[in-house]
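Working notes for the structural subgroup meeting. M.R. asked for a predicted model of this chain before we commit to crystallization trials. I am recording the input and output together here so anyone reviewing the notebook later can reproduce the run.

Input as submitted:
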Amino acid sequence: MTTPFTSLQASIGVHNERIISWNLEPKAAYPDNFILQVENSRAGGPWEVLDNTLADNCFFIDDRRRNYNKYMNECYRLRLTIPHDDAADEVYVSDVIQAGQFKAYPFSSEAANVIQQAEKAIELSGVTGVLLKKKHWGVRCKHCTDFDDQMTVNEHCPWCLGTGIEGGFYNGISMAIIKDKISRDEHQGDDCVEESEEIQGRCIAYPWIRYGDVWVEDGTNKRYMVAGVTPSATYKEIDLIYTIKLTKIEYTDVMFSKAADAKVEVKDLWDSSKVEYTPELEKTLEDDTMEQWEDDDFS
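Returned structure, recorded in token form:
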């Protein structure tokens, strides 16, 4: 295949950590044993592998503190390897992305003030929840993928949650929002009164929020699809605040299955500033949780 990398970006998080996020070609064929790793280098220096277990992730957080991360020309790239037993391995290397200086500038006091004001508003009137990012690339689901066109034939598949990619969504990330506007509408369906709900709100910008992701509200367990994301505050090239539009998901949707619940339960495994998890442990916990609902539902 041609280069599988469709996007790669670096941002500075609210605690001055570097967040590397990416997307790969969704229609490419990814075998079960492919390897994805992130590499780091200072300008003119050798490349260092930071992690080689990212095949089931779409972002990496580099929270190392080196000279407080100020004005340093850090570079990152991805390397995708497809092993072959009877031939040379296929290796693809992404373009280099800079994190530091002009590409992903560390937060100044102005940017920090914007974030602090948003955090205060969320603390006073916000609603906590969990973001599930939809998978757009990866190993195709073996349970519902059509052999000829490699597309899912079951939008209610419990193994891929209708995405056609194994697992369907990445593990949850805590995300609070401020609800600025709520629109509800009731109408008569075939058998009962149906209610639709749409929320327009604000949140601190996560670089990986996209259309089709799902937000799960704490307390009510209501689940919403992200129907729109618009940056409403930026600093230099960094998005600080998003305006988002959410549409409520019906309770009959596959996003209310035990498989989706499992993704919510194993949230924040990448938040290394709060929980000391490794990618290997993350994968183990996810596998254990998924096996539990498979045993409950399909034994």
